[in-house]
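Input sequence (69 aa), recorded before submission:
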Amino acid sequence: MTAEERGRAAEETVATLRTELTRVGITLPSLRVDPLTMAAEAPYPLVELGRCNLDTAMRLAAALREVGR
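Predicted structure, token format:
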């Protein structure tokens, strides 16, 4: 995968993750592609999930628990 393809894949993945989280009522306001990892000569982008409040963390845990059943 080229650097450009990795960057595009990271952005698409973040968009998909945001959509799916929203579908189950979860918003991670800091969800994004980490810009520092995109700025490297050969980017290996990281997805930054960011910080969330306790209520959001509990809803995320509950959603993951449901999927795991």
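Checked by second reader. DSSP finds three helices and two strands in the chain.
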